[in-house]
């Protein structure tokens, strides 16, 4: 095993100065009501989440791509930074909505009542979050450094014809687009768990082949103009942003794998598009998903929905008070258009609220949300009566975020551990998650992997760097997905390849 690279003293000094300077800026930006203890814990979470990035730079031999650093940065952004930017995220303070902190979208669709900023940035809740993030980082590094090298790597045949690979990828792309556009296919059990990552895989591998000069221009135009355009337009028309974010992140990793400078431009464009589109999404859904009897068009086409989305975007950025589309009038949020996205990324208020009401008056769930892990690997096609996971709706109603069971609220992994097992469960559970991700990182994301093996691994594990839904929902299909993709390419690339001519 190679030793860690030695960092020059000048680099260490520059890093120390940078840490102090950034910390000072964050503390200066925080509201006066935030206590010194909360600020210190916020900084601890922020910097601990960035440790994986520094570790990756020092030990490039241990990981082909920086999957884990992105997973660590998730906690820096969602739990650490919200301590310092309360005035930016909620400039109206705690009066406009009667002490309600609106954390989802522009309106107060989902809100949490806090008596003060001190309660919002509760040191006890921050301490639990810090302990969980630290356990996650430490266990991942320890496992990746010492135990993971013993794990067998994900491998596929290296000798095959491009023609066979193209046929397999075109089949995936065709099925993925059909699944996206044909509602009847989306009602088939267990299909989406395979087809969605398979579609990402097809786009990613075609990108590799194109940049390597192995994909013809006509094929590239069909994939990236027609195919990707169909996928994006359908998701945008449906008001679904998360699948597009995951696909964009996945393609960023593919570009990084190829060491392409284009990743910078691609990432910048992606962030700009997200910042432009996201503020209008919730208002747009009022028209696209509306069952209002006054609606003029009950079954709008994708083109019509995209037209509505454009109109809502223009209204948002022009600062209009309200908008009327499809016979329905709705009020636009009285907030700067960029703020809904920032609020959506802040998970600290959710955790602070959950922390203060658990276990009294809301009791622990005692592992209830993890029970599906025992059966989630069984395809619904083989078990039609398999219980559905509806914990998001139950979570929202149980903690007072919603007034009914019809709306689902995401349960991030750290919060899920707390509502099930408390503070000790967060530390032990996050340590276990760190080891689990280290094993996956070793299995799928190792130096020496072929381009096909790398892209398949990315399609499987990239969604896990955004752990914003309950654990069983995100990882329950990993085993059947991995086996299915391995068999598909193992058989497809080699079947009858060496058969002697008749």
Entry summary:
61% of the residues lie in helices and 3% in strands. By secondary structure, the protein is mostly helical. The protein folds into two domains: 9-155 and 345-493, no CATH class; 162-339, no CATH class.
List the helices and strands and how they pair.
Blueprint: H1 9-29, H2 36-58, H3 67-80, H4 86-89, E1 100-104, E2 110-113, H5 117-120, H6 123-147, H7 162-181, H8 183-186, H9 191-211, H10 217-237, H11 242-257, H12 262-288, H13 302-318, E3 322-325, E4 328-331, H14 339-345, H15 348-357, H16 391-398, H17 413-444, H18 451-461, H19 471-475, H20 478-494
Antiparallel strand pairs: 1-2, 3-4
Helix pairs in contact: 2-3, 2-6, 3-6, 6-15, 6-17, 7-9, 7-10, 9-10, 9-11, 9-18, 10-13, 11-12, 11-18, 12-13, 17-18
Please bin the fraction of helical residues. 55-70%
The gyration radius over C-alpha positions equals 24 Å
- Number of helical runs? 20
The total count of strands amounts to 4
Main sheet overview = 2 strands, antiparallel
Instruction: Note poorly predicted spans.
Output: 94-99, 105-109
Strand-residue fraction?
under 5%
Number of domains: 2
Strand order of the largest sheet: 1-2
Rounded average pLDDT: 84
Structural class: mainly alpha
User: Assembly state here?
Assistant: single chain
What would you say this structure looks like, in words?
The protein is mostly helical and 502 residues long. It folds into two domains: 9-155 and 345-493, no CATH class; 162-339, no CATH class. Helix content is 61%, strand content 3%. It has 20 helices and four strands. A two-stranded antiparallel ribbon has the order 1-2. A two-stranded antiparallel sheet has the order 3-4. The N and C termini lie far apart (50 Å).
